[in-house]
Amino acid sequence: MRTSFLPFSTPSVSDEEIFAVADVLRSGWITTGPNCAKFEAAFASYCGAEGAVAVASATGGMHCVLQALEVGAGDEVITPSMTWVSTVNLICLLGATPVFADIDRDTLMVSRATVEPLITEKTKVIIPVHYAGAPVDMDPIRELATEHGIALIEDAAHAAGTEYKGERIGKKGTCIFSFHPIKNMTTAEGGMVCSDNSELLDKVKSLKFHGLGVDAFDRQIKGRTPQAQVIQPGYKYNLTDISAVLGLGQLERLDAFNTRRTELVTRYHEKLADLPEIQPLKFPAYPHTHAWHLFIVRLDIYKAGLERDAFMAALKEQNIGTGLHFRAVHLQKYYTETFGCHPGMLPETEWNSDRICSLPLCPSMQDSDVDDVVAAIKTVLKKG
């Protein structure tokens, strides 16, 4: 057994990035400023996006995009239940109704086949989730959205560096990225909205900073217009220059991070191949580049002889950290009581929700760390 605890994930921050943050702190301009503008431009260029707006979190970005699309009472928004609760919470907070789509059992992602039967005249938005670093099969879903005149928002929180059919996620449509500390790159907290819809981006830019008619930092005058006019009620979701300069450094290393993640996952696959109790997710069949934000396995609870939560607890006793991404949203207390959601609604989602476990994965890990995780799994299964 390991003598030290292996966390599920830790951010990889370089000395150069620490020095850059310190320089910003000394500069006198630590809120939204020139580094935020540089970060937006650099991330848009990396994705091939027409434009990008930095925000304080992906949740804040989703809030702004949903409001910019005028989602409200009487509207329905289709999204998977296998996702983080923030998106569904926002749908409800705006007065709309979440409609949950089931997923593919082995990729954990929605498809046109799972989304199309849910469309009604009330459907305002579809929000597919790129999962664990793999992309949703977007072409059929884009066609579906176009056919029905429905807006599409891609939840790309897991997809920094992910490619779909030769193009990076973020190049097409409207995508929202997360830079939370466990993500492939981090700004401590933060997010980015990329879009090829300039009018939508302008609305997001206004909403994320009090509804003003100018950004928190105007690139032309290197500051903010005094007494800028409020054009709509807005929020306080702007990213700081402290976070942005960290993001600039992280973005330069993102491809290297993802390469190392891929190496670690390859080792996981090799080491776990002889364990029938452990079922990794499968690769999507269409052309893609996986960013490996998460390495998720499913526990065969019958072969293993123990439940998933007990499996995770036993790994912790072996000094191995794990994650759970995610418990099905539709079975959370609020959603069962408010919308009448119940077990049996989404069989593939529920099957996975009872079995998934995220194993440690971050660029700072050594090959020996993967070996330790697999050794701990084998020990737990023997005791199971």
UniProtKB/TrEMBL annotation:
Domain of life: Bacteria
This protein's UniProt keywords: Aminotransferase, Pyridoxal phosphate, Transferase
Gene Ontology terms for molecular function: transaminase activity
Gene3D superfamilies, A to Z: Aspartate Aminotransferase, domain 1, Type I PLP-dependent aspartate aminotransferase-like (Major domain)
Pfam families in UniProt: DegT_DnrJ_EryC1
InterPro entries tied to this protein: DegT/StrS_aminotransferase, PyrdxlP-dep_Trfase, PyrdxlP-dep_Trfase_major, PyrdxlP-dep_Trfase_small
Family: Belongs to the DegT/DnrJ/EryC1 family.
PANTHER family to which the protein is assigned, alphabetical: TRANSAMINASE, UDP-4-AMINO-4-DEOXY-L-ARABINOSE--OXOGLUTARATE AMINOTRANSFERASE
Protein name listed in UniProt: Aminotransferase class I/II-fold pyridoxal phosphate-dependent enzyme
Origin species: Pontiella agarivorans
